[in-house]
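Entry 14. Ran structure prediction on the chain below.
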Amino acid sequence: MEYLTTVELSERWYITSRRIGVLCAEGRIEGAIKKGKTWLIPSTVQKPADAIYKKTGGTE
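Output, structure tokens:
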């Protein structure tokens, strides 16, 4: 299995490597493992939905 770092994945997903590190720490990126100070993320993983944007159930 091929792994990517947060920097490599940030170029692919167009978000900062810091944000990817936070997502890994929160357990939101499946299969991510921490090796020392570096997160190793499977190259086949899908970008998780952003929790900032929530669906509203009411009428607006």
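Residues 36 and 52 are 29 Å apart (CA to CA). Will compare against last week's run tomorrow.
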